[in-house]
Amino acid sequence: MILALLITAIVVPSGQSFHCTPIAVWDGDGPIWCEEGPHIRLSGIAAREMDGTCKPGHPCPNVDARAARDYLARLVGTPTGTLRTGHIKVAGPDYALPISRQRWRQSHRSVLQFAQVG
User: Sign (positive/negative) of CA torsion 70, 74, 79, 84?
Assistant: First the structure.
């Protein structure tokens, strides 16, 4: 299953953009599932795993994992329920997500800047 997700991962090149209508959130730093297909993880955000643990060598904030997840869900849309997997279902607006060229050069990862469409 994980291998299948890795194979189907979409990489958006620096300087390009894509649309995301959020439909689900896993934890406080993502992934945010988009109706259009991509799953977005937020860069530079420290959040506990859903079991309350922190990854070794990563910051470990005092905020409860569920509280962080619920807050992110409210930021990207309107929570509408919970999936069997534990993801929070959301009804979000369409966002245009440009990929920052500067951050891509610095870390070889994309940074997403939310800009609501319409």
Answer: negative
Q: Is 0.85 topped by the overall pTM?
A: no
| Cα dihedral 54, 55, 60, 61 sign | negative
75 vs 98: CA distance, rounded Å: 18
Which candidate, 109, 77, 104, places its Cα nearest to that of 93? 77
Sign of CA dihedral 112, 73, 29, 44: positive
Please name which of 84, 87, 111, 109 lies closest in space to residue 97, comparing C-alpha atoms. 111
> Three-state DSSP class for 91?
strand
How many CB atoms within 10 Å of residue 52?
10
Closest CA to 66 of 54, 51, 77: 51
pLDDT per position as a tens digit, 56-88: 988 899 999 999 999 999 999 999 999 998 899
